[in-house]
Amino acid sequence: MFDTIIRNANLPDGRKGIDIGITAGKIAAVEATLPTEAGEVIDATGRLLSPTFCDPHFHMDATLSLGLPRMNVSGTLLEGIALWGELRPTLTKEALVERALRYCDLAVSQGLLHIRSHVDTSDPRLVTAEALLEVRDLVKDYIDLQLVAFPQDGYYRAADGAKSLERALDMGVEIVGGIPHFERTMEDGRRSLEALCRIAADRGLMVDIHCDETDDPMSRHVETLAAETVRHGLQGRVNGSHLTSMHSMDNYYVSKLIPLMAEAGMNATPNPLINIMLQGRHDTFPKRRGLTRVRELMAAGINVSLGQDCTMDPWYSMGSADMIEVAHMAVHVAQMGSVAEKGQIFDAITVNSARTMGLEGYGLAVGCKANLVILQAADVTEAIRLKPVRLYVLRDGRVISRTAPRLAQLSLTGRPGQIDPGLDYLPPA
Ligand code: FE2
């Protein structure tokens, strides 16, 4: 007997009408039909069941601070950084915790239960780290929250950048971050990556770098990160976030760079919503998209995950903790619209991101943790098209969020009374 059976679910790999048996918080069976009884039965009614979503790149210390202390008028990355610099000295631990917890509630409702957040370590008070370490503990029963020590104002460029980053790691922040393109010179950026990878190797930590979030085709921090990864034996433990310079680089150079990244086992995490919003700001027309080369990185066997980066903060006034919204943007900007490519993009917000984050027990195989979301859509393609309601969200086999399906009640003579956008508008099989 299972604790719970989810009946008649469609899976991201295309299997349809599958039953999932859950025992002691783990997936115990994945079969066409499970005959046995269960404590609880959830009828998925032929809708998509996915492992819960992962966001491997977020800023939880800044989220929901939109309008504090004022709005970003130009909408640029640099005004965002300046605005954050105005807000930062006024931050209190209580306010940070309150905002982060409100965000986590929203994330749960969206089936987003695995989040890697950067924590700005530029203010030597480190109130950001203190607050998010507390939040990590408060939400641990329902969200895996990883924290990255992120020297927003530069590891070398800010007066106490290096010292504060190490102090945050001492406090329990578990990943080493960096921002080489924001250092004063290309050489300082290179040296920062050398230092940060050494810190990670010495402490046995992972690395996650805001790497070349710029339109500069000559920026070379991605190759440095790949080289330092190999030099310090960090293969598989390093994530290059953004990588937008690669959009603008010379094609011949990229043909050398991508194999170096693959050799280093680097993960790549573009942030499509933010990249399309912030990059190309110095262009007139034609205007660059700024998203890194998602399809080409995937084709080279590099693990590509997608991040959200921001929700309602100095850099981005939108966002809703919805990783499908991120996937939807990626499909458009990377021009990956075939059924197979949409599947690859869906992987980028689920299994690939779990790999970037080093999550254990993630997935839909027997023995995996029963962290699951049922969507009001029939399959992956329809989920990306519809950004559908998350009907059920389960953590360790327990339902922690339910949302009523979106059903429109029509009053039109001769037309159906009710339509379900998730099931009534499927393309021909
Ligand atoms: Fe970021």
Characterize the structure shown:
The chain has 429 residues and is α/β, with parallel strands linked by helices. The chain has 2 domains: 2-51 and 363-410, Urease, subunit C, domain 1 (Roll); 53-357, TIM Barrel, CATH 3.20.20.140. The chain has helices at residues 77-87, 93-109, 127-138, 161-171, 186-203, 221-231, 245-248, 251-263, 272-278, 294-299, 323-333, 339-348, 351-357, 380-386, and strands spanning 2-10, 18-23, 26-31, 38-51, 53-58, 112-120, 144-150, 175-178, 206-211, 238-242, 267-269, 372-375, 390-395, 398-402, 408-409, 418-419. A 7-stranded mixed beta sheet has the order 3-2-1-4-12-13-14, with no helix packed on it. Strands 5-6-7-8-9-10-11 form a 7-stranded parallel beta sheet, sandwiched between helices. Strands 15-16 form a two-stranded antiparallel ribbon. The longest helix has 18 residues, at 186-203. It is globular, with a radius of gyration of 22 Å. The structure holds fe (ii) ion. Residues 57, 59, 118, 210, 309 line the site of fe (ii) ion.
